[in-house]
Amino acid sequence: MWSKEFDAEIMAAKRNVMLEKGFEIFTQRGIEPVSMQNIADAAGCGIATLYRYFDKKQGFVIEVAMKKWNEIRELNRERREKADIAGMTAAQLFEFYLDGFLLLYREKKDLLRFNQMFNIYVEGAGIDKTSLEPYYGMIDNFGENFRLIYERAKTDRTVRTDIPETEMFSTTLHLMLAAVTRYAVGLVYKPEAGFDDMKELETLKAMMLMMYRKG
């Protein structure tokens, strides 16, 4: 029996397919070369149907980025629920936070590659800040997890608090994300004898711990 709720579920399912197919084709071919027609073809729908959900490519690309990073936020929430973070020191929480980047590299290389292309596309397309506000607002939410580290450090003194929280969060986020992204897209030196990517990323993690941990 038809209902508004059932109709909304169908529309949400179709929208999800379009976003997933968009992400898939973007990671395979890049963002700039892909047209809305290419996306419609990949999603198995007509171009008019796609435009009923998304009025332009720029908005579609932003929606894809938000969807995939929201999935990571949900995974992080589940990961935190499984861990005994209530019993962790600030230093242990900080290591748990850094491990999240290594997990992202091991399991979500496609997202890291997409994110690299997304940043380049946003810059090149000259997308206005207003259109990007929902995306950046969602990214800012990742700072909430870091805030717990800083607040707990004020009590247990296992992580430095002489550095402003925003500076510490920005530095760790950008350095760790930049590193795992470069490895994911292959922009690293590869000696003939080969290299251990995880070992090198673990070294970066250890350096970050050494920088900000006390004692």
Strand content bin: under 5%
Topology as a string of helices (H) and strands (E):
HHHHHHHHHH
C-alpha end-to-end distance: 65 Å
Q: What top-tier CATH class of the largest domain fits best?
A: Mainly Alpha
> What is the averaged pLDDT score?
92
Radius of gyration: 20 Å
Instruction: Give the name of the CATH architecture of the largest domain.
Output: Orthogonal Bundle
Number of helices: 10
- The percent range for helix content is over 70%
Strands, count: 0
Class based on secondary structure composition and strand pairing: mainly alpha
Overall domain count: 2
Give unreliable regions as ranges: none
What profile does the largest beta sheet have?
none
Task: Determine the CATH topology of the largest domain.
Answer: Tetracycline Repressor, domain 2
**Silhouette:** globular
Kindly report the oligomeric state of this protein: single chain
Describe this structure in words.
The chain is mainly α and 215 residues long. The protein has two domains: 1-55, Homeodomain-like (Arc Repressor Mutant, subunit A), CATH 1.10.10; 57-212, Tetracycline Repressor, domain 2, CATH 1.10.357. It has ten helices and no strands. The protein has helices at residues 4-29, 36-43, 47-53, 57-82, 90-107, 109-125, 129-140, 143-156, 165-185, 197-212. The termini are far apart. The model has no long low-confidence stretch (mean pLDDT 92).
